[in-house]
Amino acid sequence: MKNKREVLVKLFLSTLYLSAFTFGGGYVIVTLMKKKFVDDYHWIEENEMLDLVAIAQSAPGPIAVNGAIVVGYKLAGLTGTLVAIIGTIIPPFVIISLISAFYHAFRDNYLVSQMLEGMQAGVGAVIASVTYEMGCGIIKKKDNVATIVMIAAFIAACVLGINVIYIVIASGVFGVIRTIWNRRRKRV
């Protein structure tokens, strides 16, 4: 049980840290979660991380919380889920509470507004990095169908301007159909 306790403490501190120092939304935290949980701790595989992102993005709610739920559950079941959620929501709750309390001071502060504007460029770079790494992960699997779906989804979103929700749903439905098809083929 000590091992599970150590995992829970590490999970809580990791999600707390990631949530506290991640600015720019859920896609930024995905990169940091990959680095921490895949590269550093080896708790999950890279393919599982891709699945985690797909689940987190397609479920309602913030990607950071959804991602924490999936990782927490995989590592320690329901207890891990609760620990990861608490670790993930404490920092934004505290930060938003402080910003709300001092809203007028922040709103009119030139330095704060410039800092936030500068952070946008960094956030864009991190999101581009995540996109590149995840795309490479899909290509490395040498699954031509998955690569074609990825390229088609990119074209649908960036060229055709189709809403991302529809793309995620369509990709999910395609994945389910493909899985059923492959399982039936293996039985025959």
Write the layout of secondary structure elements.
Blueprint: H1 2-20, H2 26-40, H3 46-58, H4 63-101, H5 103-107, H6 110-140, H7 144-158, H8 164-187
Helix pairs in contact: 1-2, 1-4, 2-4, 2-6, 3-4, 7-8
Number of strands: 0
Structure annotation, total helices: 8
User: Which secondary-structure class do the elements indicate?
Assistant: mainly alpha
Rounded to an integer in angstroms, the radius of gyration calculated over CA atoms is 19 Å
How much β-strand is present in the residues? under 5%
Question: What's the SSE pattern?
Answer: HHHHHHHH
Mean pLDDT: 85
Largest sheet: none
Which residue ranges are poorly predicted, with pLDDT under 50 across at least 5 consecutive positions? none
The helix content, as a percent range, equals over 70%
How far from one another are the termini? 44 Å
Outline, from the CA principal axes? Answer: globular
